[in-house]
Amino acid sequence: MTRKSYLGKYLKADPLLKWWLVLFCASAIGLGAIGVGEAMSGGSDDGARLDAAGLDERAAGAAPDNKLNVSQLPDSSFIYDITIKELASADSYMDGQTVQVTGEVVGDRILPELDSSDCWVMLQSSGEGDDSEVAVYMPLTASESIDTYGAYGKRGTTLQVRGTFNLACKDHQGASDLHSESVAVVARGSVEEMEFNYMRLVPGLVLLLIGSLLLIAFDIMRERQR
3-class secondary structure for 98-118? Predict the structure, then answer.
């Protein structure tokens, strides 16, 4: 009774202490309840692992062909999406790599032999102010998709070519070329109407006139010296 009376006096004297005791008791009860729940469920992490294992088993049962082949070799092949300008200045690292370039067909189709099933075409960079080129070795059937070869007054067909780049091709006397595996048309060619500008003849006519006058003056001076 004495202890209770002393405790009651302290609680009446300091009301804040009463609320601290209530908060402490509530925290202890809450922590105890959480501990009991963890003990009964066997731990939340274990449950998660069990659920994941169960899902893996169900997935494996639903897709029996989805198995890991431990003897499969890694595939390190990939494609370089590169510009013709970069390809023209490529080093030995790019030799034998699978690359993909886009450019305008210029010049003409070249057959290495009369009865050949392959041909050569020149692919030029489409960048403004860049005339870098790469020789593309492709099947003759693939070149049939080219409707226009770039020249003066003509815009060649734009192709996207994927294939193997050879820095020094052993099959073509060490030439740097691209052996195509896939050829796709990006844009059709076109013929540009070139209007004749007569004003471009003026500088040439002026120079021709000056030259004629100088020639006549020289001939007159030579005649006077005789």
Answer: EEEEEEEEEEEEECCCCCCCE
